[in-house]
Amino acid sequence: MRHARSKRLVASCAFLSALALLGLLSLDLALRRDASRTPEPAGADEETTRDRLRDALAALVSSGNREAGERQWEAARWLLSRLAELGYEVQIQQYERRGERWPNVVASRVPLSAATEHVVAMAHLDSVSGDPQRRAPGADDDGSGVTVLLEVARALRKAGTHRPIVFCFFSNEEGGSLGSQAFASWARRQKLRFPAAVNVDVVGYNRPVRLLDWSAVTAQTGWRARGRAVWLQVRNGITAVRTGADTLLVAGRPPNRGLVDRVADSLERVGGLSVVRRVRGDCG
Fold first, then answer.
1. Which residue blocks in 40-177 are alpha helix, DSSP H?
2. Which residue segments constitute the domains of the chain, with CATH numbers given?
3. The pTM is what?
4. Which among 96, 98, 146 is positioned nearest to 124, based on CA atoms?
5. Cα(65)–Cα(55) distance, rounded to whole angstroms?
6. Per residue of the chain (284 residues), what is the pLDDT tens digit?
7. What is the DSSP code string of 196-210?
């Protein structure tokens, strides 16, 4: 009897494994099919914007991983120059952590004042990797957000807005949100008021050609980290198949539901993108 049960258990495990493998292969084929689709030709204005985004991203990631202080300072100075060219008042706010000085880049068209409410638009200039010597120049996380925010700053540099916009590029966000915490502490001391903040993080991501990038798995140290790398890639692949290409996630906490809806509505109306809305207590 015990032998028969063992046989049934083995057969069940084999059947479930076969189903799982079949599902993964189907997902892999779906990703490859989606990645092979040719995008529709862009208009002249859209092509110019795309060229600027591509060139800015290439310049930002050219120095590789941006985890060390030297690389983050390099990115901060590059951003300072680009924003100054657009006519913004730009400053590098420094803070001390881990015995080093670190940079935040803050740009606005008008001086920050406690008498005026400002809207914060933010991205982070650092990147992180389990193998920084080989991988992770941070093109997606968060080079995509930085370059998009630069293009937004370009588009709005002469536009009138109900509230002035402050463009912030924070350092050390991957290391515990140190840059944004330093900025928030400074803003409290200055009694500045920010009724809304928009965080632009990972808004550009290569469509995966295959289910797993094994080099991203082997770059991790330890089986737990490698297992997590596999799980994250599979999860992202399932999300890509479920939501389709050119999809953005707009997320926020319950008190900010109205802001989530307004941002998502604008992206759907102006950008023609598919938008997934997520309002949960652990967002942001």
1. 44-61, 69-85, 145-156
2. 39-205 (3.40.630.10)
3. 0.76
4. 146
5. 18
6. 555 555 454 444 444 344 444 444 444 444 455 555 555 555 666 678 889 999 999 999 887 889 888 999 999 999 999 999 999 999 999 999 878 999 999 999 999 999 999 999 999 999 987 665 556 788 888 899 999 999 999 999 888 888 999 999 999 998 889 999 999 999 999 999 999 899 999 888 766 666 677 777 887 778 888 888 888 888 777 777 777 767 888 888 898 898 889 888 888 887 777 888 989 887 76
7. EEEE------PPPSS
